[in-house]
Amino acid sequence: MRRTIAGNAELALLLELAGTPTPGNVDRARDHPDLRFDQFLAGAVGARPGLDAAAAGAPVGIALKTAVAGMAERARDNTQFGALLLLLPLVRAAAATPAGEVSCAAAADVVAATTVDDAAAFYRALEHVEVCVADPPDGMDDLDVRRGAEAIPTLRERGLTLADVVSASAPDDGVAVEWTSGFERTFDAADALRSGAGPLTDRVPRAFLDLLADEPDGLVAARHGESVAERVSDRAAALRDADRETVAAWADDLVAAGINPGTTADIVAAALFVALSRGSRA
Amino acid sequence: MRRTIAGNAELALLLELAGTPTPGNVDRARDHPDLRFDQFLAGAVGARPGLDAAAAGAPVGIALKTAVAGMAERARDNTQFGALLLLLPLVRAAAATPAGEVSCAAAADVVAATTVDDAAAFYRALEHVEVCVADPPDGMDDLDVRRGAEAIPTLRERGLTLADVVSASAPDDGVAVEWTSGFERTFDAADALRSGAGPLTDRVPRAFLDLLADEPDGLVAARHGESVAERVSDRAAALRDADRETVAAWADDLVAAGINPGTTADIVAAALFVALSRGSRA
């Protein structure tokens, strides 16, 4: 098969980036002052060996660590950690199901089958990047994702799997919610992307706005607080049917204000993977 | 090694695309009416299995056929045939030399070692794409690259290698000249890219203009004639020290006129691969 599963995952990262405007995010038309478009290209290429490993059947944790380490090595920043955390179980699920039939049930099975070793590899992956999440819930300080490999003894002691730590360490994070909910928003967005007309990339901005309008962005909430995240979502809802120029102007405003709905972009990338896996073409 | 050889080749294709303006070519800021940016992203991802094969030691011809078939399958057009024809021997050369030391001598060795089987695979690769080159020289009609696999009996009869057919079938083509000249312009451009400051992508426009000013573009000559190709190069020479807006305006003009110096872009991609192989970072 020429359109490989790992290739679909890498292309999903690239098409998310090519779609514009995705307000507040680096995209084809916008850089951030401290993060450039080409770093995301490099991050996608750097993640490829980890995506290949997952497609070949490697455990999710090891494949994630390989993908994140490669991404960080090439991009020299955290460009796509959240997207990779979403993509890895989806890639494993796609590898385990007949071509074109990746499903939320298969993805949920992959999540349910994760182990303590996967969790340990996840914390090792976190050594390669700085992630921005809200403070962990009470009793979870030892498992704060910002602790990296230091957290490993605790998780072994408690027998926590990767599914356990993703959901427990940042329960309100949009990526964690996908892990615990069977990737519901990802698959819904994939359906929307599949049903649109024109090049897949041209459908990215609408998918992004719909997701952002639907739920406050986790990264915005972690960096700027819940009320800012809610205001951003309200604005996205108001702009759903606005013309491209109006959305682009808002994109410029968000970049200028340093407000980056990155979790929403991560879900768009995951949705693009599902769409490509089900037969959509670039 | 996390920054793999095949990853460097794929990233080179992506960074060439990200650099803007590259007048007349699809780049981060410009699509062609019939060829979009995201098709080039898809083409780069599609080529990856062939790049992986070459890095793992597959014969140049087979790896090229795999890369071109994968590119055409994902991009649904000929986005990067010329760039891949340049990259494949360079990838093989990089795989055969210590990290960071790919040289024009090693690349020339790979070219010299190509076989009749490589030539046959090259013609099969051509079945996947439409290429635009000038008419072949006298006595070479049977080996016109536009004949695809039909040419194979003739090349077997004459015992022609891939190096023979690349140089003989389109002797004036800029990609063919690289094959026969030890990739001289590619390595010169790589040196220029390596010596600049700032992100590698930001140095692409200057490398492109310098190469275009230096030699008329083969694709422009094949499509529009030698005199147009020469005028384009004269204009590139005049704009070498122009500001970005002036070059961008010329880029818009060339796209509107359908004049695409694609061979020059191919050489930039190959030069980016050499620069990345020698340690440059995105």
Question: How would you describe the overall organization of this protein?
Answer:
Chains A, B: This is Triphosphoribosyl-dephospho-CoA synthetase. Chains A, B: InterPro entries: CitG. Chains A, B: GO terms for molecular function: ATP binding; triphosphoribosyl-dephospho-CoA synthase activity. Chains A, B: Pfam families: CitG. The structure is a homodimer of 282-residue chains. The first copy, chain A, starts with a helix and ends in a 5-residue tail after the last helix. The first copy, chain A, is mainly alpha-helical. Chain A has 15 helices and no strands. Chain A has helices at 5-18, 37-55, 60-75, 81-96, 104-112, 116-125, 152-158, 162-169, 174-180, 184-195, 204-214, 218-224, 226-238, 244-257, 262-277. Chain A has one domain: Triphosphoribosyl-dephospho-CoA protein (Orthogonal Bundle). Chain A is 63% helix and 0% strand.
List keywords for this structure.
homodimer; 282 residues; mainly alpha; Triphosphoribosyl-dephospho-CoA protein; 15 helices; 63% helix; 0% strand
Work out the largest interface and the residue count of each chain. A-B, 31 and 31 residues
Residue share in β-strands of chain A: under 5%
CATH architecture of chain A: Orthogonal Bundle
Integer count of domains of chain A = 1
N- and C-termini, Cα separation of chain A: 16 Å
Q: What name does CATH use for the topology of chain A?
A: Triphosphoribosyl-dephospho-CoA protein
> What's the helix-strand series of chain A?
HHHHHHHHHHHHHHH
